[in-house]
Sequence to fold (495 residues):
Amino acid sequence: MTDCRSASGPDRQGASGTPHRRALGTARQGIGRVAGRMRRGRPPDAGGFDRKLVAPMILGSILNPVNSSMLAVALIPIGAAFEAPPAETAWLVTALYLATAVAQPVIGRLVDAYGPRPLYLTGTALVGLAGLMAVFAPGLGLLIASRVLLGIGTSAAYPASMYLLRSEAERTGLRNPSGILAALSVSNQVIAVIGPTLGGLLIGLGGWHLIFTINVPLSAACLVLGGLRLPRRADLRLAPGQRIDVVGIGLFAGTIVAFMLFLMEPGLDHAYLPAVALVTGAGFAWWELRRTQPFIDLRVLRGNAPLLATYARQLLAFTTIYAFLYGFTQWLEESRSLSPSQAGLILLPMSGAAIVATVLVGRRPQVRGKLLVGAVIQVAGCAGLLLLDVSIPVWVPVAIATAVGIPQGLIGLANQNALYAQADPARMGSSAGLLRTFAYLGALLASAANAAFYRHGATTGGLHDLALLLLVVSALLLTVTVADRSLRRVGRDRP
Fold:
């Protein structure tokens, strides 16, 4: 009887009921986790984003903004070293952005075809080579050539990073990796505004050569991290049978180069350049519309008005951002007679404003509010430039720089999130590269504007004329943002 009671009575339930309840509880927890993942659009067996990819992605993506922003405080001392006026040293800016504007979508297309690893490693190696070339450049010509090489090298990391994000999103099932997108945007936007301060400190320590020397350790770090952490082609989901449209790439490059060369030196002597740009542009459109695997799928772009609007906003915003960065900094050094270090310190609050703005809203995928606030403040910042003269108290340019830092933090972040939501996943690399192309086209337009208005030096009158142009550009950005109704949906779509 005792054995029977222990086998089938209350004592058996007391001895074995706890394990049963634990198993049932564990099963319920597992079902709850699976259901939560499915509610978020995530497959049950997916893990989180591979965090070891974040460091090489961020480090590689900052190579271009750190180089472009540090140069802002080095143009005057470089011009003095080579006895070159601002119209000639402007080619140091133009060479970088011209090379980058062409190379970004080209390398992005190669990333789509061959995966991010080989392009990332090759590009970051070129950055170190360009840094060494600049340090030992005997004249302005070779220094400009090093900037071309630098532009090509820095064009690989960003499309590679966006490709990796999309690949990880497919693996994990997460629709919008807003946290990692925010980290990329924070690093790029913040570095762009910290760069002048860092450049001024480096120049104060050892001369303008140091802003180029820094590329060597940065390149080495990217090569080590990329070699250790980036996945190989076999580990990625690549579309089979992709081909590279060499003719389309050539026609695209010819169009961009001819157009931008004319903007740098407009006049009757160069009237043939717009004609070349028109002919090659028409040839590019004709060729691409007839290819089954085009370099840039114009048919997709034509049917994707929200993405085209994102590219337009990128162009307008960065025309103002870079024109302010270079034009304002040169005015501080030449008209206010500040040293590069002092000019960099005045721009430091701009860095703080960009950091705060980006961190506060970085994890929110919605973009419309960011773009509206950024555009309005950008208009106000451009209007503030009209108040400047050589006798005004120093707190006024500091306040203007601080205000302009806010749209620098917001607009790039918002456009990046918009592109991630709007672009064809199969062409994420080339679409991301094209977003950077429009940013650098804006930088080239800014460089052309600075060269035109500062033809006789960075005077207060030239700064005011530049400000009037930037007011028009900023107002146009605000108009485009208000008119784009599709922005209401970005970041709000449910899986």
Notes: Residues 346 and 394 are 9 Å apart (CA to CA). The first helix runs from residue 2 to 8.
